């Protein structure tokens, strides 16, 4: 096995372990009792990118528009997002997070960050920074290949 194949083999295996670990963390914490991952990501996307229509939101999240529509309907039923007609085309709905939606998303974000800080407690700031840069680069590669929307902007300090 050449060096490239060996590196890809390690990445492939560790990616599988990473997915398993994410599932393990999901099952063993109560962070997602308030908002599940889909709700959290949808609200976080709206908070960072601003109000948008279902098709744009679906593209940004890598979802089918009907799936995004169902998620939005569920969040709307909980009072976490609001729909309003698009000013230029009243057939389209613009989805906006409510104050309550933003508050709950922020609570989950803080709890996730605290949990992550505990997991990475023994890591140096440079190691945490490198992991953030690598996750960002990996997620951008996935977005460029599979999402129809432009990749999300890099978070501050991710370079």
Automatic annotation (TrEMBL):
<dbReference type="Pfam" id="PF01047">
    <property type="entry name" value="MarR"/>
</dbReference>
<dbReference type="GO" id="GO:0003700">
    <property type="term" value="F:DNA-binding transcription factor activity"/>
</dbReference>
<feature type="domain" description="HTH marR-type">
    <location>
        <begin position="1"/>
        <end position="140"/>
    </location>
</feature>
<dbReference type="InterPro" id="IPR036390">
    <property type="entry name" value="WH_DNA-bd_sf"/>
</dbReference>
<dbReference type="GO" id="GO:0006950">
    <property type="term" value="P:response to stress"/>
</dbReference>
<protein>
    <submittedName>
        <fullName>DNA-binding transcriptional regulator, MarR family</fullName>
    </submittedName>
</protein>
<dbReference type="GO" id="GO:0003677">
    <property type="term" value="F:DNA binding"/>
</dbReference>
<keyword id="KW-0238">DNA-binding</keyword>
<dbReference type="InterPro" id="IPR039422">
    <property type="entry name" value="MarR/SlyA-like"/>
</dbReference>
<dbReference type="InterPro" id="IPR000835">
    <property type="entry name" value="HTH_MarR-typ"/>
</dbReference>
<dbReference type="InterPro" id="IPR036388">
    <property type="entry name" value="WH-like_DNA-bd_sf"/>
</dbReference>
